Every structure is written in structure tokens, then in C-alpha cells.
């Protein structure tokens, strides 16, 4: 199956400009071309774009993504370094999750505290609004 750049953008959730940018900085190999010379993205290209999107979502820097993409072109010989990049990124994601969990815990504490204030001081049940006649 092949997809035009517009269809690849729609399916990947990336913009056409981002697809061209990824190609320009060598995150994405140049896609095949159709008989009219237009880019023709494959299912493999879309799978790779999905993986790149996940890496960006984790906060992986473009520089590291470029290194990973370059190593990928070397096949199995680069598996150890690619794994190391992913292990490091996983550590970074785990740290960020822990940081966010700490933030969530503080928000929960404050929300519970205000609910207690409403019950004790204001005589209001949390989540219930007073109805005036």
C-alpha cells in the first residue's frame, strides 16, 4: 500500500511540513516516488513515523532521535547502541512520571484539604451547590 504525503500526514497525525522536515534532517528515509514523482509512503514508513511520534512524546531530543535513525540504517550491528538510547530515554520517562506523580499527590492533598474546609468551616458538602429560593 502506498500513501500520498497528505494521506501519510493524516494517518500519522503529523503535518506535511513535519514529514518534509523529518526527511530533510534524515529521521525519515526519502519515501519512494510514484510515476508522477510524488512521494509515496509505505506502511513501513507510517509505522516508523508512529515510533518517531512516540519518541517525541517521551521528550527524546531530535539529536538522539537522529542518532537512533542513523543507527537503524546499520541493522543488527547497531542493536546495542539503539537499546542503550531507549534504556536512557526510559529512565528519563520514569523520572518524569515520578515527578508528575508527586505533583498529582500534592494536588490531591490540596483538593482534599479544601473539601475538608468546606465541610467544617463553610458547612457545604463538596460538589453540592446551595439552592436559594
Please give the structural blueprint.
Layout: E1 2-3, H1 5-12, H2 16-24, E2 32-33, E3 39-42, H3 43-57, H4 62-72, H5 79-122
Antiparallel strand pairs: 1-3, 2-3
Helix pairs in contact: 4-5
Domain HTH merR-type: 1-71
Pfam families: MerR_1
InterPro entries: DNA-bd_dom_put_sf, MerR-type_HTH_dom, MerR_fam
Written account of the structure:
One of its GO terms (molecular function) is DNA-binding transcription factor activity. Residues 1-71 form the HTH merR-type domain. This is DNA-binding transcriptional regulator, MerR family. The chain has 133 residues and is mainly alpha-helical. It has one domain: Multidrug-efflux Transporter Regulator, Chain: A, Domain 2, CATH 1.10.1660.10. Helices cover 65% and strands 6% of the residues. The chain contains 5 helices and 3 strands; from the N terminus they run E-H-H-E-E-H-H-H. Strand 2 and strand 3 (39-42) form a beta hairpin. The longest helix is centred in the C-terminal third of the chain and has 44 residues, at 79-122. The chain is elongated and about 75 Å long.
